[in-house]
Write a structure and sequence with these properties.
There is one protein chain. The chain is mainly α and 71 residues long. The chain has helices at 2-38, 43-70.
Length: 71
């Protein structure tokens, strides 16, 4: 039963990692949109960097999802 309990704890922690990634992505996009709203001329400079940041944050969620199904 201890192994099963450890598995449930691990899955809960992995779910928290995925939740944290979603919060981080929302923060990245929100701040980028705020910056573009304040200075629309910087759209071509900010938007590609935002996409790269979101992709890097999303990779953490993908690794966590893979671990979730492996555990």
């Amino acid at each position: 039963m201890e192994a099963e309990a450890a598995r449930y704890i691990a899955k809960g922690l992995i779910a928290l990692a995925m939740l944290g990634t979603a919060v981080g992505e929302g923060y990245i996009v929100g701040k980028a949109m705020e910056a573009i709203g304040r200075n629309p001329e910087t759209t071509n400079n900010i938007f590609p960097k935002m996409i790269i940041g979101v992709a890097m944050a999303e990779s953490t969620a993908i690794y966590a999802m893979v671990l979730f199904f492996v555990v």
